[in-house]
Amino acid sequence: MPKLVDHAARRAEIAAAVQRLIDHEGLDGVTVAKAAATAGISVGQVQHYFASKDALLEATYRQVVERMGARVQAAVRESVTERLPIRAVVTRALREYLPLDAASASDHRVSLAFLGRTTANPDLAGLHTETLAATRGQLALAVHNGKECGEVPGDTDAKAAAARLFALTDGFALHLGAGLDPEETVETLREEVAAVFPGRCRQWK
């Protein structure tokens, strides 16, 4: 009986190997041969799943982006289950974008490495732009919902507030890698979110 192979899982394993390679050697250190060696498979197997190096890199970037998004969504679901105010939900969600542990730090370093490639690769640029726009949109929706439940003043520009919070979080993520104190950073983020959501939530009376 032929051995069954989970092709999606194999692609994910190869992409994870490429992420480790990028984390240690940078994007310029990635070759199909090195990707195969890191994944513990043959070059032919890598080429079976990815037609080119660019396809391999795009899949790796997409996997990093999706994993970061999954952490955010898990934090949101947990917060909603706990019936927390929107302010706390947003704080927990934004915290997931910060490189505060080994896994999130690796994701952040690798995503930064890819950022330089977006100017020359339309596919990567499109994914990057799409991801940022989606995140800002989700934050703007949270601010809008905050206005509905009384946490956010009615005259607040939801899109502008969302853009500020996301840009602030992005900046914190960058500076955490340059010596910013993690605990102080999280507390400052919490204060900045609270400034947008100063009211009391009426949702969970």
Automatic annotation (TrEMBL):
Alphabetically ordered keywords of this record: DNA-binding, Repressor, Transcription, Transcription regulation
Q: Which residues form a coiled coil?
A: none
Q: Which residues bind DNA?
A: 31-50
Q: Extract one GO molecular function annotation from the record.
A: DNA-binding transcription factor activity
Q: Which InterPro entries match?
A: BetI_C (IPR039538), Homeodomain-like_sf (IPR009057), HTH-type_TetR-like_transc_reg (IPR050109), HTH_TetR (IPR001647), Tet_transcr_reg_TetR-rel_C_sf (IPR036271)
Keyword Transcription regulation found: yes
The organism's place on the tree of life at top rank: Bacteria
HTH tetR-type domain segment(s) = 8-68
Q: What is this protein called?
A: AcrR family transcriptional regulator
